[in-house]
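Chapter review: from sequence to fold.
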Amino acid sequence: MLEPNNNNELPPIPGKRYFTIGEVSTLCDVKPHVLRYWEQEFPQLKPMKRRGNRRYYQRQDVIIVRQIRGLLYDHGFTIGGARQRLVGDDAKEDRTQSGILVKQMIAELEDLLRELKA
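The token string follows.
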């Protein structure tokens, strides 16, 4: 799972519905060719494809990419180990991801409130 302290190093996820592969690359600090490779290796990662095979990631996909990145880069898992960890944590993942989403939304709303007060 992506630890909340690792999440602080990455930029917050904007409140958009869809993200291009370039935006996800920037948000997750991973190159686009690595994202394409991870799509083949991790069944949980399935961005929507439109005309011309353009990939559009949703917020949930960005969170999964951050989890994969955390497992591989921060915790030293292999691809196979990270895949097993993600599959094994499906029940816990739903609760954890909901908590992460709530925390991110609260942080974004607090930032917006500060901007409105200024």
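Two observations follow directly from the output. The longest helix spans residues 90-117. The chain is about 65% helix and 5% strand.
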